[in-house]
Specification:
The complex is a heterotrimer of chains A (about 90), B (about 120) and C (about 80). With about 90 residues, chain A is mainly α. Helix content of chain A is about 85%, strand content about 0%. Chain A has one domain. Chain C is built from three helices and no strands. In chain C, helix 1 packs antiparallel against helix 2. Classes of the chains: A mainly alpha (about 90), B mainly alpha (about 120), C mainly alpha (about 80).
């Protein structure tokens, strides 16, 4: 029961990845692409948490912690680059 | 114990539905600023709920999951706010239905005061 | 389920890698490289190598994006 519900949740998350990929290509400016990148990062963190369940090893959640720490810095540095104040 | 696991799985399903709604909003919104708004609010709530569900299913990693939830809740609004500020300063076009822009009003006010002082 | 995740993420990875090669603006190419690293990290995790995935997340998606944008800023100032 738990397995089936989590598989449906994984399918929905993969659909969300495809939709944000569409926004990456039909973008008006660079900011649109950065937003799509940010949304993909957050979906990947949730997907790593689901893979923790599918593989049955709880040590995998550490990778999600590293990811949440470092994706923040990338978006901050792009915003400073656009603002011309790096 | 089985009931608790099913509740956690349903919370994760709800979180993934919120992630999908965030992506649909990313496609349907007319403007960069509204896209930033939908892409950060719905995605933050979705990631938070799905991590919470995994933390309920596996109670032995609940501490790590709680740390991750707190971190996402702090950093994600900050980064999207900085992105919106940068988009405003480089002059991204706003949608036609935009009614109010507080930052532009503030800048105009400040400029007017400076010219009065110099005169 | 693992097979479906691998197929979808590989399609995203290949599309992003082609974009990084053929796109004219450098900033878009750097962001596309970041997405390739992100998907590669999840794929390493599916292949049961969490240490490699951690390194890829730290260096490929975090550090290299920061260094590339620092260099692009230097180039813009020198013009």
């Amino acid at each position: 029961m738990v397995n089936i519900i989590l598989q449906i949740a994984g399918g929905i998350m993969l659909l969300a990845v495809i939709l944000s990929l569409y926004r990456f290509f039909k973008a008006g400016s660079l900011v649109d692409r950065v937003i799509a990148f940010d949304v993909m990062t957050i979906i990947s963190i949730s997907l790593i948490a689901l893979i923790t369940h599918f593989s049955g090893r709880t040590i995998y959640i550490d990778v999600a912690i590293i990811y949440g720490l470092l994706s923040f810095l990338g978006v901050i540095i792009i915003a400073r680059y656009l603002e011309k104040s790096l | 114990m089985e009931v608790l696991k099913i509740i956690g799985a349903l919370i994760t399903l709800l979180g993934s539905v919120f992630l999908l709604l965030g992506s649909i909003g990313l496609i349907r919104m007319p403007d960069v600023f509204t896209r930033i708004q939908t892409g950060t609010k719905a995605s933050t709530l979705g990631a938070l709920l799905s991590l919470l569900g995994i933390g309920i299913i596996y109670l032995d990693i609940a501490g790590k999951v709680f740390l991750l939830i707190v971190f996402i809740l702090i950093t994600n609004p900050v980064s999207s706010h900085m992105l919106a500020r940068a988009a405003h300063y480089i002059g991204v076009k706003k949608a036609d239905v935009t009614v109010v822009d507080e930052l532009e009003d503030f800048e105009n006010e400040k400029q007017k005061n400076e010219t009065q002082i110099s005169e | 389920m693992n097979l479906i995740i691998i197929i979808v993420l590989s399609v995203v990875m290949v599309v992003m890698a082609i974009t990084a090669i053929i796109h004219k603006k450098l900033a878009v190419a750097v962001i596309a490289t970041g997405v390739v690293s992100l998907m590669a990290s999840v794929m390493y995790l599916l292949m049961a190598a969490p240490d490699v995935a951690m390194t890829e997340a730290a260096i490929g998606s975090g550090l290299s994006t920061i260094i590339f944008f620092y260099v692009l800023n230097k180039i813009r100032k020198a013009k």
